């Protein structure tokens, strides 16, 4: 385990935070891969209950160190007390939120269609280097550990069964379907790797003679995952039958704190989201008329999906998305952002088969040896309509997730590693990315009616997320002014129907989304509520500058905002307002 500071003069919140990052990277090698730490480590994390408890124990020890440092006056005596205090506040809030989730036994029922331990083990292989024979050897050693990791994950879920802690049936059924897709042989892969499914695809590019030995390891990994799938279907699913898919207000509030860094007024947020819904519906009607005269928004979006401009083929789609990001960087650089050279590098990739439906982003390693990457799930498609891709890639890539997370890495030395990595708050990150979509609309990049309808539909998706996520989990009713089932309870079934009537994305995507919200309660509301915080902070900063008779420089504000590291929604508006 990484050493921790022990001399009083060395102990500050930032040294404690960074020691925590390195200690966690030792406990969890997947964290190390994401951050680009411990490059020679070829392990997988201990997914047993004891391994999960070890992470919690590290958190408790870290909080005790923070208590002692603050009691000893480490913040006041620091060279930059405000920076130390901000780091201390984030570290305490984040670890406390994580420990609350752990104490409630959520680790024991971590079956979900996105971000489960099983998904994380598979995803890490998409981030490993494969340029040299040594890279493939190290990948192989880690691949050989997959069967044990799957067995350990099963042990944790078995303890959940003993304690009566289950994931909802929708999560279980979806994961069973996803694993079937992971295991399906790929006809484009030669034997012996073909039969190993996704892991066979992974090792297929390896050079001989390594490819043959790697194919055997890939098959062993797939066999163990197949056995786990059978256990899910035959043991876990019957045991979990009857478990509510929604989690209730108490569990939901705990998860909201975890995802947003705030104790939100859920009823206020629900009502506000309905106001956003009505406003966006009106804007979409106007834009739909421009796309297809006389059409409703749903009719216009259906036309765009089936008959509008589209790209044929996965590789042309990837190249198109790469071009969108390259053009955005070229246009924004020096005008609305000042980007260091490492931040300007970002890659477009195709997501591995069996991913959830939503595109996603993975951050660069701390040293930028692995660049930031956006990922497009294919979902069996050959044609990719562009109407909804443009604003999505402004969100996932530039100026969205990539600019924020890559800039955090760039300024890590002036903050702490923790503040730009493990301390990230989902609502801050997703709020910035949704703000980035709006910024591109404000700057005139979404004047094409189809592209702008795609942007408004993306905004509608995020407003619906607040409505549906809070409504389902907390048990609220559709309000009296709802155009859909007013006064009725928000069940998952009605929520899915509601989605289908007011969001112009595919049925497969919306099905995946609903399962995602039920499996990650509280995460989906952070997009729109996070954007609200970013917009309020910008407006307050602008007003403060103007009150002082100063010009508000948006580029300067952007760079300052992106260089302050992570903040939860408890602190975000106040910090942004002061810039």
The structural class is mainly alpha
The termini sit apart by 38 Å
What gyration radius follows from the Cα positions, in whole Å? Answer: 24 Å
Query: In total, how many beta strands?
Result: 5
Largest sheet geometry: 3 strands, mixed
The strands making up the biggest β-sheet line up spatially as 2-4-3
DSSP summary: helix tally: 24
Low-confidence stretches: 1-7
The global form is globular
Give the SSE order as H and E letters. HHHHHHHHHHHHHHEHEEEEHHHHHHHHH
- The averaged pLDDT comes out at 96
Strand content: under 5%
Structural notes for this entry:
Among the domains are: 139-243, no CATH class; 254-526, no CATH class. The radius of gyration is 24 Å and the shape is globular. α9 runs antiparallel to α11, α13 packs across α14 and α19 (449-474) crosses α22 (526-547). With 579 residues, the protein is mostly helical. The strands form 2 sheets. Strands 2-4-3 form a 3-stranded mixed β-sheet. The longest helix has 31 residues, at 210-240. It has helices at residues 13-27, 29-35, 49-71, 74-77, 81-103, 117-124, 133-143, 146-162, 169-183, 197-203, 210-240, 248-260, 266-291, 297-307, 314-332, 389-396, 401-410, 426-442, 449-474, 492-502, 507-519, 526-547, 554-562, 569-577, and strands at residues 310-312, 346-350, 360-362, 372-376, 383-385.
